[in-house]
Amino acid sequence: MADLAEDLANWMGNLPDDLQKVPIIHLAIPGSHDSCTYPITSRSKIAPDAETAILRLRWLGCILKWVMSRWSKTQGFDASGQLQAGIRYFDLRIATKPNDCLHFVHGLYAAPVPIVLHQINDFLNSHSKEVVILDCQHFFEMDIDDHIHFVDMIFDTFGLKVLTCDNYYMKHLSLDYLAEHKFQVIVVYRLKHFKHPFYPAGCYPTPWPNTTSTKELIQILSSDLKRRNNNYGYISQFILTPRKSTVLKYVFGGNLKKFSAEPLYTDKMNWIESQKPGKYGVNVIIGDFVDIENLKFSRSVINLNNKLLAKPEPDCYLTELPPITT
Protein backbone atom coordinates (compact mmCIF):
# COMPACT_ATOMS: atom_id res chain seq x y z
CA MET A 1 0.00 0.00 0.00
CA ALA A 2 1.43 3.36 -1.04
CA ASP A 3 2.13 6.06 1.52
CA LEU A 4 -0.02 8.87 0.11
CA ALA A 5 1.11 11.16 2.95
CA GLU A 6 4.84 10.92 2.34
CA ASP A 7 4.94 14.58 1.25
CA LEU A 8 2.24 16.29 3.29
CA ALA A 9 2.71 19.69 1.67
CA ASN A 10 1.96 18.24 -1.78
CA TRP A 11 -0.24 15.27 -1.02
CA MET A 12 -3.13 16.26 -3.28
CA GLY A 13 -0.94 16.90 -6.29
CA ASN A 14 0.90 13.62 -5.69
CA LEU A 15 -2.19 11.40 -5.57
CA PRO A 16 -2.30 8.67 -8.26
CA ASP A 17 -4.12 9.49 -11.49
CA ASP A 18 -7.14 7.40 -10.54
CA LEU A 19 -7.64 9.46 -7.40
CA GLN A 20 -7.25 12.73 -9.29
CA LYS A 21 -10.52 11.84 -11.01
CA VAL A 22 -12.44 11.18 -7.79
CA PRO A 23 -14.78 14.01 -6.68
CA ILE A 24 -13.25 15.80 -3.71
CA ILE A 25 -16.51 15.18 -1.84
CA HIS A 26 -15.55 11.48 -1.89
CA LEU A 27 -11.88 11.87 -0.95
CA ALA A 28 -10.68 11.66 2.65
CA ILE A 29 -9.41 15.13 3.61
CA PRO A 30 -7.89 16.19 6.97
CA GLY A 31 -9.13 19.43 8.50
CA SER A 32 -8.72 21.46 11.68
CA HIS A 33 -11.40 22.51 14.14
CA ASP A 34 -11.45 26.20 15.08
CA SER A 35 -8.48 26.50 12.79
CA CYS A 36 -7.19 29.97 13.63
CA THR A 37 -7.04 29.91 17.43
CA TYR A 38 -3.28 29.30 17.57
CA PRO A 39 -2.30 32.85 18.75
CA ILE A 40 -4.76 32.95 21.67
CA THR A 41 -3.14 33.78 25.00
CA SER A 42 -4.27 35.11 28.38
CA ARG A 43 -3.68 38.60 26.94
CA SER A 44 -6.22 38.13 24.13
CA LYS A 45 -9.35 40.23 24.35
CA ILE A 46 -12.78 38.71 24.92
CA ALA A 47 -14.57 38.27 21.57
CA PRO A 48 -18.27 38.79 20.75
CA ASP A 49 -18.89 35.05 20.41
CA ALA A 50 -18.26 34.53 24.13
CA GLU A 51 -21.27 33.19 26.01
CA THR A 52 -23.42 35.61 28.00
CA ALA A 53 -22.30 34.02 31.26
CA ILE A 54 -18.69 34.76 30.34
CA LEU A 55 -19.44 38.36 29.45
CA ARG A 56 -21.02 38.84 32.88
CA LEU A 57 -17.71 37.78 34.45
CA ARG A 58 -15.62 40.40 32.68
CA TRP A 59 -14.93 41.95 36.08
CA LEU A 60 -12.57 39.01 36.79
CA GLY A 61 -10.21 40.54 34.23
CA CYS A 62 -6.94 38.66 33.68
CA ILE A 63 -8.04 35.63 35.70
CA LEU A 64 -11.07 35.10 33.44
CA LYS A 65 -9.00 35.46 30.27
CA TRP A 66 -6.36 33.08 31.62
CA VAL A 67 -9.01 30.39 32.11
CA MET A 68 -10.67 31.15 28.77
CA SER A 69 -7.40 30.94 26.87
CA ARG A 70 -6.81 27.40 28.14
CA TRP A 71 -10.17 26.24 26.79
CA SER A 72 -10.42 28.42 23.65
CA LYS A 73 -7.15 27.52 21.94
CA THR A 74 -7.62 24.44 19.75
CA GLN A 75 -4.59 24.52 17.44
CA GLY A 76 -0.85 24.87 17.90
CA PHE A 77 0.13 25.54 14.27
CA ASP A 78 -0.63 28.69 12.31
CA ALA A 79 -2.25 28.43 8.87
CA SER A 80 1.08 27.90 7.09
CA GLY A 81 2.08 25.16 9.49
CA GLN A 82 -1.25 23.40 9.11
CA LEU A 83 -1.02 23.48 5.33
CA GLN A 84 2.50 22.06 5.46
CA ALA A 85 1.07 19.37 7.75
CA GLY A 86 -1.49 18.32 5.13
CA ILE A 87 -4.55 20.16 6.44
CA ARG A 88 -6.82 21.23 3.59
CA TYR A 89 -10.01 22.24 5.42
CA PHE A 90 -10.25 25.28 7.71
CA ASP A 91 -13.07 25.86 10.20
CA LEU A 92 -13.45 29.65 10.48
CA ARG A 93 -15.41 31.90 12.86
CA ILE A 94 -15.20 35.59 11.96
CA ALA A 95 -15.99 38.77 13.91
CA THR A 96 -15.43 42.49 13.78
CA LYS A 97 -13.01 44.02 16.26
CA PRO A 98 -13.37 47.67 17.31
CA ASN A 99 -10.91 49.94 15.51
CA ASP A 100 -9.22 46.96 13.88
CA CYS A 101 -9.52 44.51 10.98
CA LEU A 102 -11.71 41.41 10.97
CA HIS A 103 -10.48 38.65 13.27
CA PHE A 104 -11.07 34.96 13.74
CA VAL A 105 -12.52 34.19 17.16
CA HIS A 106 -13.29 31.45 19.66
CA GLY A 107 -14.35 33.10 22.89
CA LEU A 108 -11.29 35.31 22.58
CA TYR A 109 -9.94 37.22 19.60
CA ALA A 110 -7.49 35.06 17.67
CA ALA A 111 -5.68 35.58 14.35
CA PRO A 112 -6.36 38.61 12.11
CA VAL A 113 -8.24 37.56 8.96
CA PRO A 114 -5.94 39.29 6.41
CA ILE A 115 -2.82 37.60 7.82
CA VAL A 116 -4.36 34.12 7.65
CA LEU A 117 -5.71 34.59 4.13
CA HIS A 118 -2.31 35.78 2.91
CA GLN A 119 -0.57 32.82 4.54
CA ILE A 120 -2.92 30.47 2.72
CA ASN A 121 -2.47 32.29 -0.58
CA ASP A 122 1.33 32.22 -0.26
CA PHE A 123 1.14 28.46 0.21
CA LEU A 124 -1.14 27.99 -2.79
CA ASN A 125 1.13 30.11 -4.97
CA SER A 126 3.97 27.66 -4.36
CA HIS A 127 1.79 24.51 -4.37
CA SER A 128 -0.30 24.87 -7.51
CA LYS A 129 -1.99 21.45 -7.30
CA GLU A 130 -3.26 21.81 -3.73
CA VAL A 131 -6.84 22.82 -2.91
CA VAL A 132 -8.24 24.28 0.33
CA ILE A 133 -11.76 24.45 1.69
CA LEU A 134 -12.46 27.59 3.71
CA ASP A 135 -15.57 26.99 5.79
CA CYS A 136 -16.94 30.27 7.15
CA GLN A 137 -18.94 28.70 9.94
CA HIS A 138 -20.08 31.60 12.11
CA PHE A 139 -20.15 35.39 11.99
CA PHE A 140 -20.35 37.78 14.93
CA GLU A 141 -21.28 41.45 14.99
CA MET A 142 -20.97 41.73 11.23
CA ASP A 143 -23.44 43.83 9.25
CA ILE A 144 -23.99 43.71 5.50
CA ASP A 145 -21.11 46.11 4.83
CA ASP A 146 -18.79 43.90 6.87
CA HIS A 147 -19.83 40.85 4.83
CA ILE A 148 -19.30 42.70 1.57
CA HIS A 149 -15.86 43.74 2.81
CA PHE A 150 -15.01 40.15 3.79
CA VAL A 151 -16.14 38.74 0.43
CA ASP A 152 -14.09 41.40 -1.37
CA MET A 153 -11.09 40.49 0.81
CA ILE A 154 -11.37 36.84 -0.25
CA PHE A 155 -11.39 37.74 -3.95
CA ASP A 156 -8.68 40.39 -3.55
CA THR A 157 -6.44 37.82 -1.85
CA PHE A 158 -7.07 34.70 -3.95
CA GLY A 159 -8.30 36.16 -7.25
CA LEU A 160 -9.10 33.55 -9.88
CA LYS A 161 -8.15 30.71 -7.54
CA VAL A 162 -11.64 30.96 -6.01
CA LEU A 163 -14.27 28.56 -7.31
CA THR A 164 -17.65 30.29 -7.32
CA CYS A 165 -20.88 28.37 -6.97
CA ASP A 166 -22.92 28.51 -10.17
CA ASN A 167 -25.06 25.59 -9.02
CA TYR A 168 -25.05 23.16 -6.13
CA TYR A 169 -23.83 20.15 -8.13
CA MET A 170 -20.46 18.95 -6.82
CA LYS A 171 -19.71 15.53 -8.27
CA HIS A 172 -17.67 17.00 -11.13
CA LEU A 173 -15.27 18.71 -8.70
CA SER A 174 -12.32 16.35 -8.98
CA LEU A 175 -8.73 17.44 -8.47
CA ASP A 176 -8.24 17.03 -12.23
CA TYR A 177 -11.13 19.40 -12.94
CA LEU A 178 -9.96 21.98 -10.40
CA ALA A 179 -6.37 21.87 -11.67
CA GLU A 180 -7.50 22.22 -15.29
CA HIS A 181 -9.36 25.41 -14.41
CA LYS A 182 -6.72 26.57 -11.90
CA PHE A 183 -9.18 26.62 -8.98
CA GLN A 184 -7.60 26.14 -5.56
CA VAL A 185 -10.05 27.70 -3.09
CA ILE A 186 -13.54 26.47 -2.25
CA VAL A 187 -15.44 28.73 0.14
CA VAL A 188 -18.44 27.60 2.19
CA TYR A 189 -20.41 30.60 3.49
CA ARG A 190 -22.93 29.61 6.16
CA LEU A 191 -25.11 32.69 6.18
CA LYS A 192 -28.70 32.98 5.03
CA HIS A 193 -30.28 36.18 3.73
CA PHE A 194 -27.01 37.43 2.23
CA LYS A 195 -26.33 36.95 -1.44
CA HIS A 196 -22.83 35.61 -1.98
CA PRO A 197 -21.02 33.69 -4.75
CA PHE A 198 -19.86 30.79 -2.56
CA TYR A 199 -21.17 27.35 -1.61
CA PRO A 200 -24.02 27.36 0.95
CA ALA A 201 -24.15 25.37 4.17
CA GLY A 202 -26.15 22.54 2.60
CA CYS A 203 -23.27 21.65 0.29
CA TYR A 204 -21.05 20.76 3.27
CA PRO A 205 -23.13 19.48 6.21
CA THR A 206 -21.17 19.52 9.46
CA PRO A 207 -23.23 17.96 12.27
CA TRP A 208 -21.96 18.85 15.75
CA PRO A 209 -21.75 15.81 18.08
CA ASN A 210 -21.83 18.05 21.20
CA THR A 211 -20.79 15.40 23.71
CA THR A 212 -18.17 14.82 26.40
CA SER A 213 -18.29 11.04 25.92
CA THR A 214 -15.86 9.37 23.53
CA LYS A 215 -18.15 6.35 23.19
CA GLU A 216 -21.14 8.53 22.33
CA LEU A 217 -19.04 10.61 19.93
CA ILE A 218 -18.04 7.53 17.93
CA GLN A 219 -21.63 6.29 17.86
CA ILE A 220 -22.91 9.65 16.60
CA LEU A 221 -20.23 10.00 13.92
CA SER A 222 -20.73 6.46 12.63
CA SER A 223 -24.51 6.77 12.61
CA ASP A 224 -24.51 10.15 10.85
CA LEU A 225 -22.22 8.88 8.10
CA LYS A 226 -24.80 6.28 7.10
CA ARG A 227 -27.24 9.09 6.31
CA ARG A 228 -24.94 11.41 4.40
CA ASN A 229 -26.00 12.70 0.99
CA ASN A 230 -23.38 11.54 -1.52
CA ASN A 231 -24.06 14.47 -3.85
CA TYR A 232 -22.40 16.89 -1.45
CA GLY A 233 -19.42 17.16 0.87
CA TYR A 234 -19.55 16.03 4.47
CA ILE A 235 -17.63 16.93 7.62
CA SER A 236 -17.06 14.57 10.55
CA GLN A 237 -16.17 16.50 13.71
CA PHE A 238 -14.05 14.20 15.85
CA ILE A 239 -14.08 16.51 18.86
CA LEU A 240 -15.32 16.49 22.44
CA THR A 241 -17.14 19.57 23.73
CA PRO A 242 -16.43 20.43 27.37
CA ARG A 243 -19.31 21.52 29.57
CA LYS A 244 -19.09 24.45 31.98
CA SER A 245 -18.84 21.90 34.78
CA THR A 246 -15.79 20.36 33.09
CA VAL A 247 -14.02 23.72 32.91
CA LEU A 248 -14.85 24.48 36.56
CA LYS A 249 -13.65 21.05 37.67
CA TYR A 250 -10.28 21.49 35.96
CA VAL A 251 -10.09 25.27 36.18
CA PHE A 252 -6.48 25.37 37.42
CA GLY A 253 -4.94 22.22 35.97
CA GLY A 254 -6.82 21.54 32.76
CA ASN A 255 -7.09 22.79 29.22
CA LEU A 256 -8.72 21.70 25.99
CA LYS A 257 -5.63 19.84 24.83
CA LYS A 258 -5.51 17.71 27.99
CA PHE A 259 -9.29 17.20 28.03
CA SER A 260 -9.99 16.48 24.37
CA ALA A 261 -7.02 16.09 22.05
CA GLU A 262 -4.66 13.90 24.06
CA PRO A 263 -7.08 11.47 25.80
CA LEU A 264 -9.09 11.16 22.59
CA TYR A 265 -6.11 10.47 20.40
CA THR A 266 -5.98 6.64 20.42
CA ASP A 267 -9.74 6.25 19.93
CA LYS A 268 -9.65 8.86 17.16
CA MET A 269 -6.89 7.06 15.29
CA ASN A 270 -8.63 3.71 15.65
CA TRP A 271 -11.89 5.15 14.34
CA ILE A 272 -10.20 6.88 11.41
CA GLU A 273 -8.32 3.76 10.37
CA SER A 274 -11.59 1.80 10.37
CA GLN A 275 -13.24 4.22 7.94
CA LYS A 276 -13.27 4.43 4.17
CA PRO A 277 -13.90 7.33 1.80
CA GLY A 278 -16.32 7.14 -1.14
CA LYS A 279 -20.06 6.50 -1.07
CA TYR A 280 -21.44 6.70 2.48
CA GLY A 281 -17.88 7.07 3.68
CA VAL A 282 -15.89 9.86 5.26
CA ASN A 283 -14.97 13.04 3.44
CA VAL A 284 -13.53 15.80 5.65
CA ILE A 285 -12.47 14.77 9.17
CA ILE A 286 -11.57 17.55 11.59
CA GLY A 287 -9.91 17.55 14.99
CA ASP A 288 -8.23 19.70 17.61
CA PHE A 289 -4.45 20.13 17.86
CA VAL A 290 -3.59 18.51 14.55
CA ASP A 291 0.11 19.05 15.30
CA ILE A 292 0.42 16.37 17.99
CA GLU A 293 1.95 12.88 17.63
CA ASN A 294 4.10 13.63 14.57
CA LEU A 295 1.09 14.63 12.42
CA LYS A 296 -0.33 11.11 12.50
CA PHE A 297 -3.87 12.53 12.23
CA SER A 298 -3.25 14.03 8.78
CA ARG A 299 -1.28 11.03 7.60
CA SER A 300 -3.97 8.56 8.66
CA VAL A 301 -6.80 10.51 7.00
CA ILE A 302 -4.89 10.98 3.74
CA ASN A 303 -3.92 7.31 3.55
CA LEU A 304 -7.58 6.28 3.76
CA ASN A 305 -7.69 7.18 0.08
CA ASN A 306 -5.76 3.99 -0.65
CA LYS A 307 -9.03 2.18 -0.02
CA LEU A 308 -10.51 3.87 -3.10
CA LEU A 309 -7.76 2.34 -5.20
CA ALA A 310 -8.46 -1.09 -3.79
CA LYS A 311 -12.23 -0.80 -4.28
CA PRO A 312 -13.01 1.82 -6.92
CA GLU A 313 -16.55 3.15 -7.18
CA PRO A 314 -16.82 4.46 -10.76
CA ASP A 315 -20.47 5.41 -10.41
CA CYS A 316 -19.39 8.18 -8.03
CA TYR A 317 -17.01 9.79 -10.48
CA LEU A 318 -17.85 12.37 -13.11
CA THR A 319 -15.36 14.33 -15.13
CA GLU A 320 -17.87 16.56 -16.92
CA LEU A 321 -20.64 18.76 -15.58
CA PRO A 322 -24.07 17.55 -16.72
CA PRO A 323 -26.58 20.05 -18.16
CA ILE A 324 -28.34 22.20 -15.57
CA THR A 325 -32.09 21.69 -15.55
CA THR A 326 -34.38 24.54 -14.58
TrEMBL record:
Lineage: superkingdom: Eukaryota
A Pfam entry, by short name: PI-PLC-X
What positions does the domain Phosphatidylinositol-specific phospholipase C X occupy?
Answer: 17-190
List the InterPro entries hit by this protein, alphabetically: PI-PLC_domain, PLC-like_Pdiesterase_TIM-brl, PLCXD1/2/3, PLipase_C_PInositol-sp_X_dom
State the PANTHER family in the record.
PTHR13593, SI:DKEY-266F7.9
Q: What is this protein called?
A: PI-PLC X domain-containing protein 3 isoform X1
